[in-house]
Amino acid sequence: MTSPTSPDDRAARRAVVQELRQQLQQLERSCRRPAGGDVLFSTGLRRLDQLLPGDGLLPGSLVEWLTADRGEGTATLAIVVAAQVLKHGGALVVVDGRGEFYPPAAQALGVAPERVVVVRPRNPRDTFWALEQALRSSGVAVVYGRVEGGDALVFRRLQLAAETGGSLGFLLRPATGRSQVCWADARLAVRAVPSPGPARPVDWRWRLRVELLHGRGKPGGDMVELELHDEDETHPLHLAPPLARPALSAGATGS
Amino acid sequence: MLYTTAPGGSQAVAACSRRAAQYGIRLGMPLAEARALGAPRGGQPTAFAPYDPQADREALGCLAVWCQQFSPVVALATDEPPDSLLLDITGCAHLFGGEPGLVQRAVAELRPCGYVARVALADTPGAAWAIAHYAALPDGTAVVPPGQQEAALAPLPVEALRLPADVLPALHDLDLRRVEQVLKLPRATLPSRFGPVLLRRLDQALGRLPEVLTPVQPAEPIAAEQAFETPLASRQLLEAVLERLLEQVLARLQDRERGMRQFVVTLHFGKQQDTDVVVSLLTSSDSLRYLMHLLRLRLDAVRWRLAVQAVTVSVVAAPPLDWHQQTLFPEETSETERDQHLAQLIEVLSNRLGEEAVVRPQLLPDAQPEFAYRYEPRLRPSPAAGSPPAPLPLSRPLDLKREPLTVAVTSVVPDGPPLRFSWQGREHTVAHYWGPERIEAGWWREREARRDYYRVETQTGERFWLFRDRDSGDWFLHGTFA
């Protein structure tokens, strides 16, 4: 590979890659299950919907959220999106193996506590078992859980369970899961964007950058920036495209 | 402890403890007023719970069965609210050393159960009821000698005659306050002036009319048992036997249109201690396949090494089955169907992981973050209490550490905001902060919390929840905005 490549070579290679990618997309699209595929849930923000394969959340599928688990907002965003899905009825099952899920915060993000079932398994085996049972049940709208470990086979089982039950699975995985085969419809990574403005801001805007690492029938790499804020009276929390404040963000880093 | 009821939408006090009464809480007082009085400074706060007359009735029914140790005939009094038991002790008193002995024994046996009883003994149920409710009983007991009920009843108020609510105002209008005043009236005029009930109650109390008590029947226990000639070690065989026993039990329940909500499988190991395997459901079910599925999940969690010598399946709770109307278009999953599927999921999870592992969050109006919620097992009925208002969005972290973690924090001024902190071996520089949010709560607990909370954003945009303990000055990380 050390020999210099001519522009022609490169163009040809690009064409081949493009063709392969298209074939792959077609293959992946065709294996999408037809039943229920026509009803999509919105995340509450059009720009975020467009990031997802199929332009929305497909019931009976998994969404993997890769998280650094360092206060970067992944879980918060997942719960905000889950609250949007819960508007269409059903319950939220939280599989909380660490015992750190905090219900008052979830309520503040728009999830009514009476619609939440918290499951507290004692070991990883029970965690995956509980996730599978919950995904397989058609009485559940969203299953949310933090998972550690688990091989591709386990996630394939979870995906099949979600297809059977028609519920949405939000799985929070450590970033090490990135190298594994993805059975989810979408694999997302969330990063917090440093806020502009003074050291003691008056409002609570929180800017997050969501990247699609892998999507079924959609190439990864697409990215969207959004903002969590609480200015709308009708919703406890709102997703919004970030305000263009170049002047502020440029001058903020030094303050 | 204090209970509230809701007549016509407004909530009022239905019952309260002696301590609550000392705080100034009275029966019938509006709930808001009672709440204000219920937590005086320096005193124990009062617990509030909704009033459930049905539960009272069921508890009284259980107590009635328990009271059959004193007499075979125990009946529930028909008055509202149900608070009395009537015992026919004909031929029983000599077993307890005479009538006073029986009465003393009843009070003494009830006290450890948490009941303060007023016990009266008389020739007629009416007289005993009247004296137990309205006479002054210094030690909580009274024994009326045979034939003396008229004298005992005379000074009591007319309410003691167990009269319906519409008769009492008529008596009061004529200033008839005591039983003796009613007794002096010409007997023949009573029915036409006050209705037939008054005369009937009066005659029943004085023993001129017989009163029949309908004894409470204890529920017949439903169980099936199988003993093995040679102890059983195979799980498969055991399951086959259990399935047959469950089938027998279900067949008996089917006649009464009932299903099981809770049953116990007892494994007998001979000399070793028996093991109980409890299977609980949210709603009653009569499906053998489903109940066996739950039982298998439960058995997975039980460890035993010995061979089983006998098994018993006994029903603990068998409420009537819930009937659901079929939907016209079965392909549409209706809301009730969804609820049923969710209930099944909860039952499956609870039986495998344990009932404490499948819970509903109950938010509490406590300022200290770790006490602002409580988990209740999903299998237990919901307390149906309203939630306190939600905290502001993003004011609380979604991941709250089980215990606040000590962190090393640099801040410029002694009581100022944090500047830098290290956590998980990384140095974080604070770029923005919100706060302090001062929380002082829990003076009634062992350790009072006096904390200054800061929400901080680091230079990389990550958000954490830190607080400084105002007593020690130490910094803690309490949660991450994960």
Short summary:
Chain A is of the alpha/beta class and 255 residues long. Chain A has helices at 7-30, 46-51, 74-86, 103-108, 124-136, 152-165, 246-252, and strands spanning 62-67, 91-95, 116-119, 140-146, 168-174, 186-193, 206-215, 223-229, 238-240. Chain B has 482 residues and is α+β, with helices and mostly antiparallel strands.
Q: Could you name the key traits of this structure?
A:
A: 255 residues; alpha/beta; Rossmann fold; globular; disordered C terminus; B: 482 residues; alpha+beta; Dna Ligase, domain 1; seven-stranded antiparallel beta sheet; four-stranded antiparallel beta sheet; 20 strands; 28% helix; 27% strand
Detailed description of the structure:
The complex is a heterodimer of chains A (255) and B (482). Chain A has helices at 7-30, 46-51, 74-86, 103-108, 124-136, 152-165, 246-252; strands spanning 62-67, 91-95, 116-119, 140-146, 168-174, 186-193, 206-215, 223-229, 238-240. With 255 residues, chain A is an alpha/beta fold. Chain A has a single domain (40-252), classed as P-loop containing nucleotide triphosphate hydrolases (Rossmann fold, 3-Layer(aba) Sandwich). Residues 33-37 and 244-255 of chain A have low confidence and may be disordered. Chain B contains 13 helices and 20 strands. Chain B has helices at 18-22, 31-38, 53-66, 98-110, 125-134, 149-153, 167-173, 179-184, 190-194, 196-206, 235-254, 288-301, 335-353; strands spanning 2-5, 12-16, 48-50, 73-76, 85-88, 119-121, 141-143, 223-232, 260-268, 275-285, 308-317, 358-363, 373-377, 399-406, 408-410, 420-423, 426-441, 449-458, 463-469, 475-480. In chain B, the strands form six sheets. A seven-stranded antiparallel sheet of chain B has the order 14-20-19-18-17-16-15, with no helix packed on it. In chain B, a hairpin with a 7-residue loop joins strand 17 (426-441) and strand 18 (449-458). In chain B, helix 5 packs across helix 10 (196-206), helix 11 (235-254) packs across helix 12 and helix 12 (288-301) runs parallel beside helix 13. The two termini of chain B are 39 Å apart. The chains are: A alpha/beta (255), B alpha+beta (482). The interface between A and B is large, with 62 and 61 residues.
